[in-house]
Design a protein that fits this description.
single chain, 133 residues, alpha+beta, OB fold (Dihydrolipoamide Acetyltransferase, E2P), 5-stranded mixed β-barrel, 18% helix
Length: 133
């Protein structure tokens, strides 16, 4: 069995849009920009990915996450997406890649406080001397 997985870490484009299929299954549609280094231009440039997050069979998955993704106030929000690729053809016959979201995390947490606490603990153990490793 083969399986393709995509992990993206970037910033959300405009806020997510809630949609429903004809059968009533809900999904969120949004985009995420991932900055990549362009060596020819010597700068970072965004690569955009279209994402869809589908509701679960119970119909309650999106209820919990919608407030964190919908609306223009969420533009630029840091996201980490874990998903699978889905390639389909648009009306003009162009292949389009969409990432079907399995899991979502709201960006890297500020770990400054935790790092400081660990550093202080190490300094206490070794009384300011270099560790023997």
């Amino acid at each position: 069995m083969s399986y393709a997985k995509i992990i993206l870490s970037g910033n959300m484009g405009k806020g997510a849009e809630f949609k429903e299929t004809k059968s009533g299954t809900g999904y969120l549609k949004f985009s995420i920009a991932v900055n990549q280094w362009d060596s020819s231009a010597k700068e970072e440039k965004p690569s955009w990915f279209n994402c869809q997050m589908w509701d679960n069979k119970q119909g309650n998955r999106l209820d919990r996450i919608r407030p964190y993704l919908e609306g223009e106030s969420n533009k630029g929000k840091k996201l980490v997406i874990d998903g699978t690729p889905s390639i389909w053809q648009d009306k003009e016959g162009n292949n389009v890649l969409t990432v079907k979201v399995i899991e979502i995390d709201f960006g890297p947490k500020d770990q400054t406080k935790e790092v400081k606490q660990v550093t202080e603990s190490i300094n206490e153990v070794f009384n300011g001397e270099e560790p023997p490793f």
